[in-house]
Amino acid sequence: MTWVTDFHPTKDELASCVQCGLCLPHCPTYRLTGRDTASPRGRLMAMSAVASGDLAVDDSFAEIVGYCLQCRACEAVCPSLVPFGRAMEGARAEVAAQVPDAKRRLRHLVVGKLLPTPGLMRVATWGIRLLRALRLDRLLPPWLAKPLSGVRPLDGSAPRRGTIQGEGRLGTAALLAGCVMEPWFAGVQRATVDLLTRAGYRVVVPENQTCCGALAAHDGDVADARRLARRNVEAFAGVDLVVVTAAGCSAHMAEYGHWGGEDLARRSRDVTMVVADLIDRGHLPRLPEDRGPVAVQDPCHLRHAQRETAAPREILRAAGYTTVDVDPSGMCCGAAGIYSLIYPDTSAELGSRKATEVQATGSTLVASANPGCEMQLRQHLPAFYRVAHPVEIYHEALVESESRPRVRG
Fold it and tell me: Could you give the maximum distance between any two Cα atoms of the chain, in Å?
């Protein structure tokens, strides 16, 4: 038997790759190394070799599939529409089941149990604040060494779970609290709730929700990914819309059909798509001010997995900014969930390259719709650069515009 789980790459998924190689120039790890085993084509060939019994699921196979960023840039250019992200999750599930590894078990404990537990995340956040207050930043991972929205003591808190507000003219929208958005990016959460209620939604933040499970799924932890998905299916039952403020989470929830949540997948949308639509329909205003340039970094799971690039730019232009593309090809910044913990050198190289591209735009304001990308950019950009979510930038511009005294003619 080559596969031992029920989540392994399927015969149809593997057969859909015709090995044309069009994915190669779009793969970050292939561009860094030039190795075919570090390309989507090479990884799929390795999976096929396992399926046919010619290759074992061992440490070598684990390295081939583990080195992938899962940015899914290959999917966006594949003429055969290979579902690479799904196949990669299946391959990593096999690695987790067949290749014992203490570090992987620890990662699964963190992403499957610690991150989804709000109380433990509050303790971790308190620890981060303490280390920074004691000037012991060197003890933190590099991507936590610079300020985060929710780690700044004066930033306030995210909307409390159990919150219900708004009139409901447009229906009921539920907010995904997430694992890191609630404690670390409270400003984005508050801005989202305020914009949804202004537009006419009744907004709820269900108490019994949990982490979306993306990190667990990407690391092959199928049991926890399924458990978290089932809990969210129950938590978000009965609402018209589920709004997700992290691009990696919205991409995962849009594919909840893989995890038994087809209906929830249909009702889940990234916040940039929701807010851009509300602006387009006239439920939220376009501001007339000219606020200058903003550099736009496209998170992979918004650009490649969900094929959405227009929404963040529409929001920023509505705020009065001129958008400048950081990288028209959308190369990964190297954050990739927990990738920086596993392959720090590769992550740092990609992050440094992305920072150079940002600096070339000439804008010190950078918009990114994913928390991992925000942290990666803050790590590699000078301190005077500001990196924020497009929705947060729009909300700040809207509040500032409303607070400005009006001149009577």
Answer: 80
Mean pLDDT of 294-299: 98
Residue 146 DSSP code: S
Tell me which CATH code domain 11-100 carries: 1.10.1060.10
**How many CB atoms neighbour CB 251 within 10 A?**
26
> For tokens 């596969």, what's the residue?
3
- Single out the residue of 194, 209, 199, 231 nearest to residue 162, CA to CA: 209
158, 171, 161, 180: which is closest to 235 by C-alpha? 161
Q: Give the residue from 397, 377, 402, 371 showing the smallest Cα distance to 115.
A: 371
Strand order in the sheet with 241-244: 164-165, 201-204, 171-175, 241-244, 268-270
Is the CA virtual torsion 304, 305, 308, 313 positive or negative? negative
* Mean pLDDT across the chain: 92
Mean pLDDT of all residues in 246-255: 97
Give the residue, 150 or 188, on which the prediction is more confident. Answer: 188
- Measured from the Cβ of residue 168, the count of other Cβ atoms closer than 10 Å reads 16
- Three-state secondary-structure class, residue 17: coil
pLDDT(206) > 70: yes
CA dist 90 → 65, 173, 224, 296 (Å): 10, 32, 14, 32
Say what the pLDDT of residue 157 is: 77
How many residues would you count in the chain? 409
- What tokens does 287 get? 């501001």
Nearest to 95 by CA among 44, 37, 47, 49: 47
CB contact at 8 A, 318 and 287: yes
**In the beta sheet, which residues pair with residue 179?**
none
pLDDT in tens, 117-140: 888 888 888 888 888 788 887 777
Q: Could you state, in order of their start, the residue ranges of all structural domains in the chain?
A: 11-100, 283-403
3-state class (DSSP) for residue 250: helix
